[in-house]
Known about the structure:
Blueprint: H1 6-17, H2 35-57, H3 59-65, H4 67-80, H5 95-102, H6 106-122, H7 132-136, E1 155-161, H8 163-171, E2 180-192, E3 195-200, H9 203-212, H10 218-224, H11 231-247
Antiparallel strand pairs: 1-2, 2-3
Amino acid sequence: MRKVGLKNLQKSFQDALMGKNNEVTRFIKPANMTASDRIKVYQDDYFFRLRDSLEEDYPALHFYLGNIFFEEVVRKYLNEFPPDNFSMREVGFNLPKFLNNHHEDHKTTELSEFESKIIESLYSKNIKLLNLCSLKKIPLEKWPGLVFRVQLSLKAIQCHYNTLEYIVSVNASDPCALECLPKPIETLIWRFEGEVYFRGLSEEESALFSYLQEGISFAELCEKMLFFFDEREVVPWVSSLLQVWVNEGIFRDF
């Protein structure tokens, strides 16, 4: 028999697990069943492992769909987006895209996008964060030129449903109804001191957050926020909110 390299054998085995082909059966000699039956056992075990991983990563989506429909969605998803490596962390990377393309219920897309961003936030790189102690040491005359930059784990999503409330309620084992909001709400997701935090933004807060993405200075932020506040209100409001966000671990250190 021709020798097969380890990498090729691993690739053949992975292809068999995903049902692409059964070439690896040539190297399997089970005692009490056929090679194809043994591969079927491996395939079932692998699928249930992937399903359980997705259920753990997307608990609110799983609850919303229910066991049977969730498993059906997972099977179709894995058929279209089979894992290209053995890392469980990346199994659901394309799930929001899949649901957006194939599922008419937009609630499932938003749920999966929200929970996917939670996963991204959890595994983002650690960096040094700005804290209030450091901020208070900055002389007032330098404030106009300060540029606040968000930390790497921070993600934002535009919610058209009460998705945040729903996810929190499911995690608390007291699920609420998933309903359409009167108007979309931008929601921030980030990791701070090992925990994931959420914050729904008001119209003014969302505008400030959008301006922050432009990398502009504190003085420029205040100038843009004059659309919402008069000259007496704008500086106290902007500086107060920025300090709240600093305390919540949203910004990286200068």
